[in-house]
Design brief:
0% of the residues lie in helices and 69% in strands. It contains no helices and ten strands. The chain has a five-stranded mixed beta sheet with strand order 2-1-9-8-5, with no helix packed on it. Strands 4-3-6-7-10 form a five-stranded antiparallel beta sheet, with no helix packed on it. The protein is globular, with a radius of gyration of 11 Å.
């Protein structure tokens, strides 16, 4: 699936990924390929991204996620890369 992570200032990440774990406001959840369409708010916490053998970890302060037709967009208020 294709992921984009965007802040008000810039695009932080774009590319094909295998798994995304996000901090939803009602608890964390994972997105895999062909996930059902969803729009959800995100709370403060860690975003984990798995790409084949690579793992990336980001800390966000909140935002919104949209999943539609195997495309995922995370609109983050602010973000810091951890790993």
């Amino acid at each position: 699936m294709y992921l984009e992570i965007i802040t008000p200032d810039q695009k932080i990440f774009s590319g094909d990924v295998d798994l995304i774990k996000v901090p939803g406001t009602r608890g964390s959840f994972e997105i895999l390929e062909y996930h059902a369409p969803i729009i959800s708010t995100l709370g403060k916490g860690k975003v984990k991204i798995l790409e084949k053998t690579l793992k990336s970890l980001f800390e966000i302060s909140g935002g919104v996620i949209e999943v539609k037709e195997n495309n995922v967009i995370i609109l983050a208020e602010s973000i810091n890369k951890i790993e």
